[in-house]
Structure formats: structure tokens, C-alpha cells
Amino acid sequence: MNKAAFFDRDGTINVDTGYLYETEKLKFIPGVPELIKKYNDEGYLVIVVTNQSGIARGMFTVEQMERFNEYMNSRLQNEYGAHIDAFYYCPHLPEITGECDCRKPKPGLFLRAIHEHDIDPAQSVSYGNSERDKMASFAAGIHDYRGVDQL
Fold first, then answer.
1. Amino acid 149: pLDDT
2. Which of 8, 41, 101, 118 is the catalytic position?
3. Residue 117 CB: number of other CB atoms within 10 A?
4. Which residues, including other chains, have CB under 8 Å from residue 109's CB and lie 6 or more apart?
5. Whether 73 contacts 83, CB under 8 Å
6. How high is the pLDDT of residue 150?
7. Which among 22, 131, 141, 150 counts the fewest CB atoms within 10 Å?
8. How far apart are the first and last CA of the chain?
9. Using CA atoms, how far apart are residues 85 and 117, in angstroms rounded to an integer?
10. Where do the structural domains in the chain lie, given as residue ranges?
């Protein structure tokens, strides 16, 4: 089984400017690219799990979000020698799209990644910036949760 380092995106990897999809606005939180590189070097899969309700709100498209994620990953690779192995996102907002099992604090994104990448939650770690990140992590069996103050 694999071990993984799960990261929320906005407010954990990058500065949260609100419904971020524009590549020119990407600013990494200091020290996070180096932390991702450390996990890469230690044999962890690095996986992003992120709520992206801006899609449901019509603020940006899935394609725009995917383009942003690809840009983020290319900058990590080019500037830090780091990489993200997979991005999992929830495009829903219950009051617009109805309930789902992937919007944090529900663990659906984590559970999908665990299943698809044969990850052992007990050997994994999760970083986030909200109580809902922590709740989703714990519900998926990842009990090593670290807030942004522990980056």
C-alpha cells in the first residue's frame, strides 16, 4: 500500500484570493512547495483534495480549474522540483446542485483517492485550513491532520 500527503488547495498550498482559477493570481504559501518536495522525496503520493464551489456558482468552468491545477503543478516542477500526483475536486454546492458525497466535510474525495491509489490512511497525513478539512480527513481514517499553522 502507498502512503500519501493530502493537501487542501486554496489557503493551504496557495494564497486564497477567493474562487481562484486565474493562473496569474497563483501565489504559493511560503514553505509549502518545499514541503511538497519533501513528501515527494520520501515516497509519499501528494494529492490535492479541494472544494471548488465556484464551478457550481458559474464563476469558472471545470476546464479553467483544470488549467489552473496544471499550471500550479508545472510551476511546482519547474521552480521547486516538486509535483502533485493527483487533484480531486468537488464542483458542487448543495443549495445549487443538491447534496453530494464529495464536498468536504464529507470524506468522498479522500475515499476515492485512497481507493484509486491503494493508499493506507494510517500511514498518511493531511493538511488543511478549516474544520471541514479536518473532519473529512478523520472520516476517511487519516488521523494525522495538520493545520496551516503546522506547515
1. 82
2. 8
3. 14
4. 49, 50, 88, 89, 90, 102, 136
5. yes
6. 79
7. 150
8. 25
9. 10
10. 4-150
Q: Given 10, 16, 118, 133, which residue is catalytic?
A: 10
Residue by residue, DSSP assigns the chain as -B-EEEE-SBTTTB---SS---GGG--BPTTHHHHHHHHHHTT-EEEEEEE-TTTTTTSS-HHHHHHHHHHHHHHHHHHHS---SEEEEE---HHHH---SSSTTSSHHHHHHHHHHTB-GGG-EEEESSHHHHHHHHHTT---EEEGGG-
- Whose cell is 454546492? That residue is 93
Question: pLDDT of 85-110, one tens digit each?
Answer: 999 999 999 999 999 999 999 999 99
- In the residue annotation, 8 being an active-site residue is answered as yes
Fold category of 4-150 in CATH: Rossmann fold (3.40.50)
Tell me whether residue 10 is one of the annotated catalytic residues.
Answer: yes
